[in-house]
Amino acid sequence: MLELYHWEPNGACARVMIALAEKGLDYRSRYVDVLSFEQCEPEFLKLNAAGETPVLVRDGEAFTESSYICEYLEDAFPASPLMPSEPLGRWKARAWQKYVDDHLAAAVSDLAWRAYGAQAIKAGDLQAGVERMPVRARRDAWTRLSTGLDDAEADRARDRIRLWAEKMETDLQSAEWLAGPYSLADIAVYAYAAYLPKLTPELVNPTATPRTVGWLKRMSERPAVKAAMGAGRNSDPFAVAAPGPEHVRWG
Fold first, then answer.
1. Longest dimension (CA), the chain
2. Is the pLDDT of residue 248 over 80?
3. Is the link from the previous residue into 42 a cis peptide, with omega within 30 of 0?
4. Which CA distances in Å does 229 have to 21, 46, 67, 191, 221?
5. How far is CA 135 from CA 39, 138, 178, in A?
6. Residue 204 pLDDT class (50, 70, 90 cuts)
7. Which pairing describes strands 2-6 and 55-58: parallel, antiparallel, or unpaired?
8. How far is residue 47's CA from residue 106's CA, in Å, rounded to a whole number?
9. H or E element at residue 75
10. d(CA 96, CA 92)
């Protein structure tokens, strides 16, 4: 039996939850409330010393990092493949996953935390929780956002999202999905992009990004995506947020 330690089906957790559903794999859900800092509990840290969700456990082996978990599921359970069969498509799928990891995830997470997450934790509880985090990078990420995202940081995040939207419109010119057939690329992007019509409506809307809006609709209508979205505790997993990864430094 697979076990998945996860928070809400957004961001990194959504990637794994959608992949599991697409492959029709049953798993035992282990909900970890990251806004209550359950990821800092000793039992969870035994699975992932970094104190980050999601964690997939199979036969006593704990797998971390959402991109790599999805790749593991693809290799371990090849039925219902989520990677293209030909080399160019596989390259596109991996390139999009890296784009999410290096650029999109942090930008969306920053703006989502500013809009939804900062009000969810009392200042004293936030400071106490941050002090329990075992990894400095995570403490720094939460501390940076605990004082609020300033306007310059928010503008930089919107710039990254604008560049992402341009890339989406280009890549969707000749195909319904990002790597040719539906793949882990679509799952990775959707896990963050589903925030954006409400979070940055000036950047993602039917006029400015018609192909992206159509793609979001196709994604939301997939039975596996619907199943994953119903596996959290919030009626709308894209109306809650936690601090995401640190930004990859770029020019």
1. 52
2. no
3. no
4. 10, 27, 19, 10, 11
5. 12, 6, 34
6. very high
7. antiparallel
8. 24
9. helix 66-76
10. 6
Element (H, E) at 79: none
Spatial separation of the C-alpha atoms in residues 108 and 44, rounded to whole Å? 26
- Provide the pLDDT for residue 244: 82
CATH topology of domain 87-239: Glutathione S-transferase Yfyf (Class Pi); Chain A, domain 2 (1.20.1050)
Grade residue 122 by pLDDT with cuts at 50, 70 and 90: low
First to last CA, the chain: 45
State CA 70 to chain mean position distance.
12
Grade residue 124 by pLDDT with cuts at 50, 70 and 90. low
The residue extents of the domains of the chain are 2-76, 87-239
Mean pLDDT of the region 162-178: 97
Contacts of 88 (CB under 8 A, 6+ apart): 180
Hey, is 55 helix, strand or coil? strand
As beta bridge partners, residue 105 has none
Domain boundaries 2-76, corresponding CATH code:
3.40.30.10
Q: pLDDT tens, 129-148?
A: 888 888 888 888 777 777 67
- The string of DSSP letters for 186-223 reads HHHHHHHHTTHHHH-TTTSSTTT-HHHHHHHHHHHHSH
Q: Place 251 in a pLDDT band, splitting at 50, 70 and 90.
A: very low
Per the CB < 8 A criterion, the answer to whether 23 and 223 are in contact is: no
